[in-house]
Amino acid sequence: MRLLTAIGAGVLGTFAAITTCHASNTLNVLCGVDEVWCAVMEKAYEAKTGLEVNMPRMSTGEILDRVRADKDAPTVDVWWGGTGITHLQAAYEGLLEPYRPKQEANLLPWARNFFSLSGGTSIGLYAGALGFAYNRNLLSAAGLPAPNCWKDLSKPIYRGHILSGNPHSSGTAFTTLVTLVQLLGEDEAFAYMAELGRNIVEYTKAGAEPVKAAGRGEITVGISFLHDAVTQKEAGAPLVIVAPCEGTGYEIGAVSIVKGARNLEEARRFVDFALSPEGQATGAAAGQNQVPSNAKAVLPLAAPDISMIKMVDYDFATFGSPEQRSRLLSRFDTDINPTH
């Protein structure tokens, strides 16, 4: 799917607790965005409806694993947030419930295209570009040049100075993997990632953690989505945000109803709220800077202008398939060994 042009036009959003809290008056939602946004959304929906919401935060890959594990007796009603490519994998595996949202006519073209690609089971919620950010104080103290490109990060001078997510658990990191494959070709991408891996201190579970750590001064460079870096910078972190010179990938964050949801009607109401201007405003209220999918929603003031960033022609159809995910993760484990 060629969604990039549509995005540019749109710019000119604990297992124990889940299994024990599934009464009919409780909506069970797995949240794949930043934990602050999870909390704001939970309170907003409870205040609007009077319904109790159980909304633990998990990384996107963990949510996919949970939905798979629960497919015969679902304990989750809604999967809200997280990279859409992982939602697509669930859609292709028959794990999601079709639903046409009331807000469909107001959604930007890239969100409607994503809805069609998922077979009507997953809806585009927000968009954001991938990149990295560096702590300018740490960079200066180490006497390092400013990195501007993906290739810069693989240079030996950055050894011990980089954090990235683990693509098994992090949708952000899986987007990074797929982005590099599309930019460089698969063999060259894995050769690059092997070089980059020598510079990475740790592969984190959550995709936003690398830039959060850079913002706290714990690491020099963090690879994450640009909007996560913007949130840290807006909070006062000494970060410089980089859209890599070679080009980069992007995500369409999504919302989906789990097939077999116990609270199906309430799940549908939650999806409609999440896609409404009111629901999408919870992102900005939580200090988040993704581009919302509803054309009537207010764009956060600090949101990166992704129409100005050089993007890959991201192939959601191919890389959203379970077979491709499994194959690429297996090769990542073999070639990169991300256990350190």
Defining traits:
globular; alpha/beta; 340 residues; 11-stranded mixed β-sheet; 16 helices; single chain
Task: Describe the fold and architecture.
There is one protein chain. The chain is α/β, with parallel strands linked by helices and 340 residues long. Strands 1, 2, 3, 4, 5, 6, 7, 8, 9, 10 and 11 form an eleven-stranded mixed beta sheet that branches. 54% of the residues are buried. It is globular and about 55 Å long. The longest helix is centred in the N-terminal third of the chain and has 15 residues.
Compact summary:
This protein has 340 residues and is an alpha/beta fold. It has helices at residues 4-11, 15-20, 35-49, 60-69, 84-92, 109-117, 136-142, 150-153, 171-184, 186-197, 209-216, 226-234, 264-275, 277-285, 316-319, 322-336, and strands at residues 26-31, 52-54, 78-83, 96-97, 122-135, 162-165, 200-204, 221-225, 239-242, 250-258, 291-292.
- By DSSP (H or I, 4+ residues per run), the number of helices equals 16
User: What gyration radius follows from the Cα positions, in whole Å?
Assistant: 19 Å
> Largest sheet, if any?
11 strands, mixed
Strand content: 15-25%
Tell me, rounded to a whole number, the average pLDDT: 91
Helix coverage percent of residues?
40-55%
Overall structural class, as computed from helix and strand content, comes to alpha/beta
N-to-C series of helices and strands: HHEHEHEHEHEHHEHHEHEHEEHHEHH
Task: Determine the N-to-C terminus distance.
Answer: 36 Å
Runs in which pLDDT lies below 50 for 5 or more consecutive residues are 1-23
| Number of strand elements | 11
**Overall morphology:** globular
